[in-house]
């Protein structure tokens, strides 16, 4: 089950990357952040039954930490403050949590980190010059 979810997450990240490369949306960072959140939530939802059976009540924080971390960049974007820092912190938290739980469910959350890192490093289009 974990392998299927992990492969699904990788496929999701690759599809988002393909869409961003081909469509070149106006707000690429927003697309990457929302996609990372969506993939993280879908992974958590897919792993929830397995995790509850295995860990019981601890499933809430085992699955919740990556989801909360993925929400941070979206909230930072909404308020327009420290968005790159939020992307990097979320990527670091999800990576750390994924490695901590690496022998279990943690690896399934790691593909979303690629989208958060891409969001942190993507460059904005240069502004047109107003000086003629």
What is the strand and helix layout of this fold?
Layout: H1 2-23, H2 28-55, H3 59-79, H4 83-100, H5 111-121
Transmembrane segments: 6-22, 34-52, 58-76, 88-118
Keywords: Membrane, Transmembrane, Transmembrane helix
Structure notes:
The chain crosses the membrane at residues 6-22, 34-52, 58-76, 88-118. Keywords: Membrane, Transmembrane, Transmembrane helix. The protein has 132 residues and is mostly helical. The protein has one domain. It is built from five helices and no strands. It has helices spanning 2-23, 28-55, 59-79, 83-100, 111-121. Helix 1 (2-23) runs antiparallel to helix 2 and helix 2 packs antiparallel against helix 5. The radius of gyration is 16 Å and the shape is globular. The model has no long low-confidence stretch (mean pLDDT 86).
Gyration radius from CA atoms, angstroms? 16 Å
Q: Count every helix, treating DSSP H or I runs of 4 or more residues as helices.
A: 5
Low-confidence stretches: none
Would you report the number of β strands?
0
- The percent range for helix content is over 70%
Q: Determine the strand fraction and express it as a percent band.
A: under 5%
Mean pLDDT: 86
Main beta-sheet strand count, sense and barrel state: none
Q: Domain count, please report it.
A: 1
Oligomer: single chain
What overall geometry do the principal axes of the alpha carbons give? globular
Structural class: mainly alpha
Transmembrane segments: 6-22, 34-52, 58-76, 88-118
Keywords: Membrane, Transmembrane, Transmembrane helix
């Amino acid at each position: 089950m974990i392998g299927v979810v992990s492969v699904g997450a990788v496929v999701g990240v690759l599809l988002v990357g393909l869409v961003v490369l081909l469509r070149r949306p106006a707000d690429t960072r927003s697309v990457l952040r929302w996609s990372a959140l969506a993939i993280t939530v879908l992974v958590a939802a897919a792993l929830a039954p397995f995790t509850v059976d295995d860990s019981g009540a601890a499933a809430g924080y085992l699955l919740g930490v990556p989801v909360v971390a993925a929400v941070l960049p979206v909230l930072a974007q909404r308020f327009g403050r420290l968005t790159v820092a939020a992307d990097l912190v979320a990527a670091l938290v999800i990576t750390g949590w994924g490695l901590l739980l690496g022998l279990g469910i943690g690896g399934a959350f790691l593909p979303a980190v690629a989208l958060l890192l891409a969001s942190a490093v993507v460059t904005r289009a240069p502004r047109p010059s107003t000086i003629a």
